[in-house]
Write a structure and sequence with these properties.
The chain has about 280 residues and is an alpha/beta fold. It has 9 helices and 10 strands. Helix 6 links the parallel strand 1 and strand 2. It is globular and about 55 Å long. The mean pLDDT is about 95. Bound molecules: S-adenosylmethionine.
Amino acid sequence: MSAHLAVHDIEIRLLIEAIFLRYGHDFRDYAQASLRRRILQAQQRMDAASITALQERVLHDPDQFAQLLQYLTVPVSEMFRDPAYFLALREHVVPILHTYPSVKVWVAGCSTGEEVFSLAILLREEGLLSRTQIYATDINPASLEKARLGIFPLEAIRGYTANYQRAGGRSAFSDYYTAAYDAARFDPSLCADVIFADHSLATDSVFAETQLVSCRNVLIYFNRELQDRALGLFHESLSHRGFLGLGSKESIDFSGYSNRFDTHARAERIYRKAT
Ligand SMILES: C[S@@+](CC[C@H](N)C(=O)[O-])C[C@H]1O[C@@H](n2cnc3c(N)ncnc32)[C@H](O)[C@@H]1O
């Protein structure tokens, strides 16, 4: 007798297929357990009687899909998240980037922009921002819209200030934003050379000649095949001896790319394209 899937799992598969066919967003190779959890959470919060009912709404109404996308994409970020990562970039990557006449950085899965603004601040302090082009990409248009504005909740700033200092910040963090009501608006000149764009690691292609790819806390949501696809894109996008930074719970160690990168800063998950 063949094993039967639970009804939930059938519904989830159909929902994911419907999203792909209708909207082109491909969640088919995301890690199953967390995807399942987030879909069940969306069903509850969006007040749908079943996942099939949710699918019906999402298929017929792009606004409902936009709402569901908020659950599927986990739009959570922080400035100078894992300060040791940014400190390692400052101390062990920036000196090498200084040897290039111009620098291209790709922040993949940039969410609402906190990582991009952190990198822009760091690069400005290290005298590199004026010759750096940053591409910041994500699949969630609402997140990209927020990222472009560079406005973050004031209540988060205390934590970000501590992170910034631990990341080797050279100024007063308050030099970079103006506070109004409950929001902090970051200096727009930080993002003068940032291109925010819709790009999926699951379905889109490479960015050529990049010196640094920072893709943090994104691969963790993918299954092994999709992780390898993304790592392949990064490998191909990087210039000779380019750098790759991942999140603290991510690694290339067990991927198909483990011998295509050297470890540059192990604890901080910074790798360098092997020759
Ligand atoms: C938890 S956030 C990480 C944000 C930021 N990198 C950080 O570390 O703070 C994960 C981001 O990955 C994005 N994402 C998910 N699937 C993606 C894909 N296939 N291609 C590009 N970005 C994706 C989500 O939209 C979300 O903004």
